């Protein structure tokens, strides 16, 4: 409201009349700076011996506290002009540090003479005695006067005075020479020293050399640092503030000489050195080096309601109280009614809203003052209340002058009653219009009509009276500040010492905003991916941020940079500076994880019962972790940083909490609520919830708390603002990017006080992997990566005895769960501890299989009607290509022989069982007319046996087993209806399956005896055998996973919302061993199919078997045709893969055999389709004007010169693009050659490895993808090796 005293900045003090603020070094300097002269009142004139007087003259401190690197004087004068002890410093006295050569040199340099005390002067005495002995009198001529360092000799040579006394307006020399030749006024371009008697050039100000005797030219200087582009006076501006169209220097020098003058049709870049066409502004391509032509852009039609210059502002920028347009047009508003929020109070004018907490707080915040109307405005007990509500000191009552607006302080009994006996009052007696009355003084409360006055404990009754700590005393109180803070002159407020910064992300840039100077330094601008979350580590002076690729870091000096985690989906990151870890949220998996700052295998901290994680915050000095959820029930939770002692903190007062921050000073948790559009806070136990809703905060996002202020970003307004954390007052916009409404997301305050030094309990632990903090810092807790378990001692992680794991397939992802995780709990309403692996480019997955050693995941994608191949690793899955596609057909079953990598499969439109080689170049057919519509296949490669389903007639399905070459068939069971998920026991003597029609999980001996079943809940989907544990999935509304240990009773393991379409169990033992095909493919030229004690060699289509092992081209088909797989028909090549089956076995529609991609870095090279249908594809798909290539797993056209379009259907007007086409083709060929070379080398290496494994008669699996980390994350300050991932084409063998 009006009439408030001025708020003075740090380093200044208000005058008593409230008219102005003056610098501390102007207080008690002998010159009146305040109009009322209050800056020269109550000044201490002398300090005691052994004390130092602060420059402002109001404080004395011990001499030992001078130049001790801790400022006791508020003006820091005790730490100015200090010479620090350094090499060559032999003696210190006061602020002087003398060299060894000046000590005991016979000349006094220290004022106290300490440099000449305790010196050995015997030789000097002997010399004097010797001179006197010969009767020589001392010289009569006085030697020249030698003055101490820092003092000056008067012209008459009689005495020395300090430099600070020269030209100070007072004669100190007897001859008055110290006040001669003193400058009174300085010329333009000069600086006048503080003593007023000396002028120096402006260029000599803040040049680290003191020309003024009082050093005033070197005080309050901002030193140029990295990122300082321009200096004006004592300000040092960042490059981004120069020629930005806004004057920051008082002399306007930051906007002077800004380069070219652009024409009316041109736009001038912010740096002022370049002009571009106006049409190039806001075209999504940066022509200016500073990107100023693309900043502040909002396209018309994208919520644009007001345009000024190149800015296009959305509606919530209009009339919000902040000038966004330079011409102020966004705030030229006619007052109109506004709708106030849930936690706001409407002003009487209906045109303004204020937070409810501002109602009746003693300050008029509504323009019409209505927020203070009808308030209980009772005065404190030591004051008199007028009937017109004013509060007066009782000493002005009955003084003959009207002070109350209604005159109620005068008249009445003023003239008749007078205080005659003060002793009847505890403190004071005053005459009032109603008679004499006793009054208690400030700090006391009256009892019994003020006959007794008792102390008021301000610290309890008004805890906000002190910013930090309050100590009550009789009749008063005293505020104190925490370590690292200074108490302001108001006696209540605390201000942090040292520099503080705001760390913010604006799209892909990381910025450091100096909170003292408002200068902005660009910490990182070379990234192309937006920073989603950020935090910092003060100890390493490093900043960590998350983007869609992982978690990265950079040092503040910009000399170090790297990646801590690759391939993780980190939604929010938080640094544990005590335990030396980084925590992050995986919003997809619903997990909170942690990793060591120096690089380690990640561990899971919390994964159960969390929905839609949003924000994460840590309080390491207490070992606490906080997070927010926005699922069905929005809430804020708290737990130990080890995941223990979990509890819901706030639930009823939140709707969509998206940001979290901890105020360690007041031990409160703050959050932003995007739906309520407010900032909330509560104690660390969830009590005392307070909500602050301001009109200027339409979409609050991240936030940080420091000192008395709360800082937050608004993603829609593109601003970072701050306000008082309790009242919400003193609002200020610190960073404004209105043209980047969603770009400015993250912000946090950077200051050492926010990461205090705390003992790390983990230092005494000997954890084998990662140590995290327990609640209350009562110790450390060892954590293990997901594939390991902790030993009984709680220190060492080791492999579990049972390493069986499940892969549960969803339409677009696969989830890994260890079988041993059942021990952590059953009947869960969420996933157990798990790992989700998203598969890129898929549409509708239906079936899966895995080769553990090669980390190869095979999936059937019904949406793309193809068998896809992925490489699984710690960071996720990478696509390796397509093995084959089926046109107008659906795959019904598949299983991979993990020894030969042959794929066994069946389809809905083709009879028999099909086998496709690992290369994808050979496909053969077994049991052609004997098996129909197999819905499941299971293999035992070591034994050379397989089992499969066979629909012999409608409604009747047989379960059969045979050798893997199709020989020796036998029927195991004949009464199945809709069997799926066949599994053979490890002993190969029992067959298991699920019958989705009958709703049972059944098993029978391979001889057809000892049938058993478990009846399941309705909605049976799939089943797997995990060692001897039965696991199956049902779905009715939700998806449930069940298991049975004894193969009799069923137990619910967990229930999730996600759809699960397939499940399979894997383990090392299940893929260990060898068969007759292990060594050199069994000697077979193409396909090797094992059977007990031997193997059968077969050839693919277009080849005939010779000599049992060899294959020769089939000569039976004429040129231009190709045989079907069955070998009984010849079909023209152009009819292959045309969508219409011509072969009776439909093998002409098995397409894209083993097509893979080559990729180096971000550029994709399209590789020619190397299969029998390549030429036909070029004619059919590309109109004969191009060739088919594979790009990102899909077949597309690469057009000939002169043609364009998806199918090369559009002729171009010129041949300009011809060199481009050939250049691209040349590059592709080069990369293909590289890929083939690498592929051949890897193939030979793999073949040699398999030969060695075969010689040992074992095929040991190394499940590095799901059980061990493929690569250790690079720690900070380590060099990352740039790896090029090569994907190769054609008929090269797939290497993983």
From TrEMBL:
Residues in EGF-like domain copies: 455-495, 1173-1209
Alphabetical list of Gene3D superfamilies matching this protein: EGF-type module, Laminin, Low-density Lipoprotein Receptor, TolB, C-terminal domain
Transmembrane segments: 1220-1241
Location of the region described as Disordered in the Swiss-Prot/TrEMBL record: 1252-1296
Pfam family, one: Ldl_recept_a
Main location: membrane
Record's keyword terms, sorted: Disulfide bond, EGF-like domain, Endocytosis, Glycoprotein, Membrane, Receptor, Repeat, Signal, Transmembrane, Transmembrane helix
SS bond partners: 28-43, 67-82, 104-119, 167-182, 206-221, 243-258, 282-297, 360-375, 379-391, 386-404, 1199-1208
Gene Ontology CC terms: endomembrane system; plasma membrane; receptor complex
PANTHER family according to UniProt: EGF-LIKE DOMAIN-CONTAINING PROTEIN, LOW-DENSITY LIPOPROTEIN RECEPTOR-RELATED PROTEIN 2-RELATED
Protein name as it appears in the record: EGF-like domain-containing protein
Organism: Pygocentrus nattereri
């Amino acid at each position: 409201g009006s009439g408030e005293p001025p708020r003075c900045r740090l380093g200044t003090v208000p005058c008593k009349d409230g008219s102005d603020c003056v610098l501390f070094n102007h207080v008690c300097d002998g010159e009146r700076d305040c109009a009322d002269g209050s800056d020269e009142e109550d000044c201490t004139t002398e300090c005691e011996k052994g004390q130092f007087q602060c420059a402002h003259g109001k404080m004395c401190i011990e001499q030992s506290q001078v130049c001790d690197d801790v400022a006791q004087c508020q003006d820091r004068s005790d730490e100015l002009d200090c010479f620090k002890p350094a090499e060559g410093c032999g003696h210190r006295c006061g602020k002087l540090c003398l060299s060894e050569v000046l000590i005991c040199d016979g000349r006094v340099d220290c004022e106290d003479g300490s440099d000449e005390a305790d010196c050995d002067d015997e030789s000097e005495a002997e010399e004097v005695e010797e001179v006197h002995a010969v009767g020589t009198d001392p010289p009569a001529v006085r030697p020249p006067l030698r003055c101490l360092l820092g003092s000056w000799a008067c012209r008459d040579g009689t005495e020395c005075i300090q430099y600070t006394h020269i030209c100070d307006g007072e004669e100190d020399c007897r001859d008055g020479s110290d006040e001669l030749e003193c400058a009174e006024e300085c010329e333009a371009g000069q600086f006048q020293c503080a003593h007023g008697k000396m002028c120096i050039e402006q260029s000599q100000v803040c040049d680290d050399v003191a020309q003024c005797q009082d050093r005033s030219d070197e005080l309050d200087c901002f030193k140029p640092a990295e990122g300082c582009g321009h200096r004006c006076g004592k300000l040092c501006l960042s490059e981004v503030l120069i020629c930005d169209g806004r004057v920051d220097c008082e002399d306007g020098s930051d906007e002077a000489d800004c380069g070219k003058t652009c024409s009316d049709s041109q736009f001038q870049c912010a740096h002022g050195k370049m002009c571009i066409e106006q049409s190039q502004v806001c075209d999504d391509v940066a022509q200016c080096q500073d990107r100023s032509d693309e900043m502040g852009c909002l396209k018309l039609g994208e919520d644009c309601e007001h345009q000024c210059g190149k800015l296009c502002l959305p509606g919530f920028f209009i009339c919000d109280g902040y000038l966004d347009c330079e011409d102020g047009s966004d705030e030229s508003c006619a007052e109109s009614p506004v709708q106030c929020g849930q936690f706001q109070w409407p002003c009487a004018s209906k045109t303004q809203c204020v937070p409810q907490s501002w109602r009746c707080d003693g300050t008029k915040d509504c323009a019409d003052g209505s927020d203070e109307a009808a308030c209980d405005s009772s005065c404190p007990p030591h004051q008199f209340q007028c009937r017109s509500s004013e509060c007066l000191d009782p000493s002005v009552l009955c003084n003959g002058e009207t002070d109350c607006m209604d005159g109620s302080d005068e008249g009445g009994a003023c003239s008749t009653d007078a205080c005659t006996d003060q002793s009847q009052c505890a403190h004071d007696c005053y005459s009032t219009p109603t008679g004499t009355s006793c009054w208690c003084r400030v700090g006391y409360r009256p009892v019994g009509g003020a006959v007794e006055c008792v102390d008021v404990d301000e610290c309890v009754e008004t805890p906000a009276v002190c910013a930090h700590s309050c100590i009550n005393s009789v009749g008063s109180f005293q505020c104190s500040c925490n370590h690292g803070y200074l108490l302001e002159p108001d006696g209540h407020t605390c201000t942090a010492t040292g520099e503080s910064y705001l760390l913010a992300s604006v799209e892909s840039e990381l910025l450091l905003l100096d909170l003292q100077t408002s200068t902005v330094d660009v910490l990182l601008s070379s990234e192309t991916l937006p920073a989603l979350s950020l935090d910092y580590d003060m100890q390493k002076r490093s900043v960590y941020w998350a983007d869609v690729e992982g978690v990265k870091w950079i040092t503040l000096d910009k000399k170090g940079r790297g990646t801590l985690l690759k391939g993780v989906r980190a939604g929010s990151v938080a640094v544990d500076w005590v335990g030396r870890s980084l925590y992050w949220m995986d919003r997809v998996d619903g997990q909170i994880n942690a990793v060591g700052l120096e690089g380690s295998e990640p561990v899971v901290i919390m994964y159960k019962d969390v929905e839609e994680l949003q924000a994460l915050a840590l309080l390491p000095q207490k070992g606490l972790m906080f997070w927010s959820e926005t699922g069905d029930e929005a809430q804020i939770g708290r737990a130990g940083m080890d995941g223990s002692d979990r509890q819901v903190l706030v639930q009823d007062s939140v709707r969509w909490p998206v940001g979290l921050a901890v105020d360690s000073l007041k031990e409160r948790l703050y959050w932003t609520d995007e739906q309520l559009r407010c900032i909330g806070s509560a104690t660390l136990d969830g009590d005392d919830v307070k909500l602050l809703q301001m009109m200027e905060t339409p979409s609050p996002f991240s936030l940080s708390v420091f000192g008395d202020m709360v800082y937050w970003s608004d993603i829609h307004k593109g601003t970072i603002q701050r306000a008082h954390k309790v009242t919400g007052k003193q609002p200020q916009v610190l960073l404004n990017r209105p043209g980047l409404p969603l770009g400015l997301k993250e912000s946090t305050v950077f200051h050492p006080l926010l990461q205090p030094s705390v003992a790390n309990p983990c230092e005494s632990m000997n954890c084998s992997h990662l140590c995290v903090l327990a609640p209350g810092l009562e110790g450390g807790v060892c954590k293990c990566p997901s594939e390991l378990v902790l030993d009984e001692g709680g220190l060492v992680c080791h492999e579990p005895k049972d390493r069986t794991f499940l892969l549960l397939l969803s339409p677009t992802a696969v989830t890994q769960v260890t079988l041993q995780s059942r021990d952590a709990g059953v009947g869960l309403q969420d996933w157990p501890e798990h790992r989700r692996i998203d598969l890129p480019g898929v549409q509708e997955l239906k079936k899966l299989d895995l080769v553990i050693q090669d980390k190869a995941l095979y999936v059937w994608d019904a949406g793309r009607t193809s068998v896809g191949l992925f490489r699984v690793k710690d960071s996720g899955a990478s696509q390796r290509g397509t093995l084959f596609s089926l046109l107008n057909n659906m795959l019904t079953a598949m299983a991979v022989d993990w020894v030969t990598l042959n794929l066994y499969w069946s389809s809905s439109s083709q009879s028999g069982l099909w086998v496709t080689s690992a290369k994808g170049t050979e496909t053969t057919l077994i049991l052609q007319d004997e098996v129909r519509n197999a819905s499941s296949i299971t293999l035992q490669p070591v034994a050379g046996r397989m089992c499969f389903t066979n629909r012999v007639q409608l409604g009747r399905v047989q379960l059969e087993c045979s050798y893997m070459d199709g020989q020796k068939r036998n029927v195991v069971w004949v009464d199945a209806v809709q069997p799926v998920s066949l599994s053979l026991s490890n002993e190969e003597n029992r067959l298991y399956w699920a019958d989705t029609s009958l709703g049972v999980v059944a098993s029978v001996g391979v001889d057809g005896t000892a049938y058993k079943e478990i009846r399941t809940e309705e909605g049976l989907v799939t089943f797997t055998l995990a060692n001897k544990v039965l696991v199956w999935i049902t779905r009715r509304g939700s998806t449930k996973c069940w298991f049975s240990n004894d193969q009799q009773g069923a137990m619910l393991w967990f229930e999730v919302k996600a759809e699960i379409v397939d499940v399979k169990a894997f383990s090392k033992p299940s893929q260990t061993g060898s068969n007759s095909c292990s060594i050199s493919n069994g000697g077979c030229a193409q396909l090797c199919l094992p059977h007990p004690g031997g193997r059968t060699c077969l050839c693919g289509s277009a080849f005939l078997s010779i000599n049992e092992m060899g294959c020769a081209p089939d000569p039976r088909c004429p040129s231009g045709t190709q045989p079907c797989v069955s070998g009984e028909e010849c079909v023209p090549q152009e009819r292959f893969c045309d969508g219409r089956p011509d072969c009776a076995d439909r093998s002409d529609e098995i397409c894209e055999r083993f097509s893979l991609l080559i990729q180096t870095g971000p550029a994709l090279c399209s590789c020619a389709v190397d299969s029998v249908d390549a030429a036909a594809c070029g004619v059919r798909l590309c109109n004969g004007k191009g060739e088919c290539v594979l790009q990102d797993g899909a077949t597309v056209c690469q057009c000939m010169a002169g043609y364009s379009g998806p199918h090369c259907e559009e002729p171009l007007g010129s041949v300009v693009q011809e060199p481009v086409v050939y250049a691209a083709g040349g590059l592709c060929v080069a990369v293909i050659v590289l890929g083939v070379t690498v592929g051949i080398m890897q193939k030979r290496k793999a073949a040699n490895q398999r030969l060695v494994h075969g010689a040992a008669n074992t095929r040991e699996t190394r499940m590095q993808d799901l059980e061990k980390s493929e690569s250790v994350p690079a720690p900070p300050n380590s060099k990352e090796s740039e790896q090029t991932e090569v994907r190769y084409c054609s008929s090269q063998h797939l290497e993983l």
